């Protein structure tokens, strides 16, 4: 089974990245393919190799933590790989794990594809199985009232810092935020805002 791939980004779409590994293009479905848009040189994508009767699919992640949480999520009845990808696209491992520990149904049901029954099943099945995943999110006040205004502690502020770490400049981020701000919703997580921003940045 494939555990990780190292190569260069050959192509990006909304749902997947094509990774060129020594001349072979691997289509890898990711929570946020555009996170790899600014990467220069070889990248490492941690893989979940999913085999079913009619397809062999690769799901990829920027960190081991995302890979581990994905594998826990797909063990929950009613959560398939696509829904698990949506969960990781809508919240960081820290946010998702903390919500499960805190039995925060409100947060979980805001994630794509998750209704109340599935959220309850996630808590029941995973609450005692997530040690070591998302530990950075175990902080007081993680689920304070979300805000999308720019500034320290805001969801956009968190997304902005992550984008700066990818190499984007303040000028680029100010420009893209001015385009996004009018449509931003209070319940959009930093990951959702980051994904929208990357799509706009990648499109120019």
TrEMBL record:
It holds the Pfam family RuvA_N. One of its GO terms (molecular function) is ATP binding. One of its GO terms (biological process) is DNA recombination. GO terms for cellular component: cytoplasm; Holliday junction helicase complex; Holliday junction resolvase complex. The keyword DNA repair applies. The keyword Flavoprotein does not apply. InterPro entries: DNA_helicase_Holl-junc_RuvA_I (IPR013849), Hlx-hairpin-Hlx_DNA-bd_motif (IPR003583), NA-bd_OB-fold (IPR012340), RuvA (IPR000085), RuvA_2-like (IPR010994), RuvA_C (IPR011114), RuvA_C_sf (IPR036267). Residues 71-90, 106-125 form the Helix-hairpin-helix DNA-binding motif class domain. Residues 158-204 are annotated as: Domain III. SMART domains: HhH1. It is found in: Cytoplasm. Keywords: Cytoplasm, DNA damage, DNA recombination, DNA repair, DNA-binding. CDD domains: UBA_RuvA_C. It comes from the Bacteria. The RuvA-RuvB-RuvC complex processes Holliday junction (HJ) DNA during genetic recombination and DNA repair, while the RuvA-RuvB complex plays an important role in the rescue of blocked DNA replication forks via replication fork reversal (RFR). RuvA specifically binds to HJ cruciform DNA, conferring on it an open structure. The RuvB hexamer acts as an ATP-dependent pump, pulling dsDNA into and through the RuvAB complex. HJ branch migration allows RuvC to scan DNA until it finds its consensus sequence, where it cleaves and resolves the cruciform DNA. Homotetramer. Forms an RuvA(8)-RuvB(12)-Holliday junction (HJ) complex. HJ DNA is sandwiched between 2 RuvA tetramers; dsDNA enters through RuvA and exits via RuvB. An RuvB hexamer assembles on each DNA strand where it exits the tetramer. Each RuvB hexamer is contacted by two RuvA subunits (via domain III) on 2 adjacent RuvB subunits; this complex drives branch migration. In the full resolvosome a probable DNA-RuvA(4)-RuvB(12)-RuvC(2) complex forms which resolves the HJ. Has three domains with a flexible linker between the domains II and III and assumes an 'L' shape. Domain III is highly mobile and contacts RuvB. Belongs to the RuvA family. This is Holliday junction branch migration complex subunit RuvA. The lineage of its organism: Bacteria, Bacillati, Bacillota, Bacilli, Bacillales.
